[in-house]
Amino acid sequence: MTYLPEPPFQHGSPSRIGVLLVNLGTPQAPTPSALRRYLKEFLWDPRVVELPRPLWWLILNGFILNTRPKESARRYAQVWTPDGSPLRVYTERQAKLLQGYLGERVKPAPRVEFAMRYGNPSVASALARLKELGCDRVLVLPLYPQYSASTTASAFDAVFKALQRMHNTPALRLVKHFHDHPRYIAALEKRVREHWEKHGQGELLLMSFHGVPRYTLERGDPYHCECQKTARLLAEALALNADQYRVAFQSRFGRAQWLKPYTAEVLTELGRRGTRRVDVICPGFVSDCLETLEEIAIEGKGLFLGAGGKEFHYVPALNDRPDWIHALAALVLEHLQGWLDGEPGAEALQRSRERALALGAKS
Ligand SMILES: C=CC1=C(C)c2cc3[nH]c(cc4nc(cc5[nH]c(cc1n2)c(C)c5CCC(=O)O)C(CCC(=O)O)=C4C)c(C)c3C=C
Ligand SMILES: [Fe+2]
Ligand SMILES: [Fe+2]
């Protein structure tokens, strides 16, 4: 094992808090070669595909990496922005805005960095940067509201792996999930209400979450339950009754059975059954990305209209909306309890706690 370069330890160095936002990662460009690199790293992670390595190596290198990069590049090209991949653009913006918000309220200001589990900036490089900046305490916040081994635990794995290569590791705190956090639910509620104020309300709100293989549920992954809870809380906040919303799972990958019902099938069925208008929100994605902008807003729309539906609305993700940034800040402050008590910033923490309680009592 080789250690990462790190500055020599000095007594009395200032002590700071670092916040590391981690998202999934995205290719460098919407091209087959960039996609091959990205998919190779992503799909080789044993947290993502749990098949025995020799068998999976043959399938991945023999088939998937020969066909999928080209097809995925075509899909990414449809949503690429002048600033790059939407997932990266929004994640970077969230980190900047959170830095600004916390910087005004907590002294000394925590340092916020973002990292990508696959691709760049890597988790190791972001942790090295926080260390350089004097952070000896780091809060890791994966940007997945619902915990799953394939996403959240994999982000933690990358953090632990980077720490294995440090002499002087920071103290760590991990945010496991925030699927039922009142501020996150309230930000989603406001997102939907604003859409309805502008465009009217559809007959049905479809809440579409990224799927995972069904076997992960049987092996103890709480992801499915956390998606259901988010959906129930959002429906309650919006005062929707059981036939005004539905939950479905998108982005199936491979041949195994995934969580059901599948979003594509639900949209087709709704169109066929005569639902005139459907609104779709993807509460599990805090940033718009390939899976929302292409799979839902383009492909999903095509399926619904093709099956006879008349009007399709995609409700955009929370992205850089102020109430979402405030929710993120509240989440961070709550997890800094004890690290902040007695320091300037503790008051902000107290206020945030009170607001969260007030919101919680309402829903
Ligand atoms: C929101 C949570 C996510 C879970 C859970 C998740 C599980 C999961 N994903 C795959 C396979 C792929 N996912 C891909 C893209 C992708 N996935 C998420 C989030 C979750 N994935 C996001 C945010 C994105 C978009 C990234 C972007 O750049 O915009 C892809 C790549 C695209 C493609 O080729 O289709 C794959 C592949 C598995 C196997 C899995 C659970 C085991
Ligand atoms: Fe995925
Ligand atoms: Fe469940």
UniProtKB/TrEMBL annotation:
One of its GO terms (cellular component) is cytoplasm. Signal peptide: none annotated. CDD domains: Ferrochelatase_C, Ferrochelatase_N. It is an enzyme of class 4 (lyase). InterPro entries: Ferrochelatase, Ferrochelatase_AS, Ferrochelatase_C, Ferrochelatase_N. NCBIfam families: hemH. Catalyzes the ferrous insertion into protoporphyrin IX. This is Ferrochelatase. The gene is hemH.
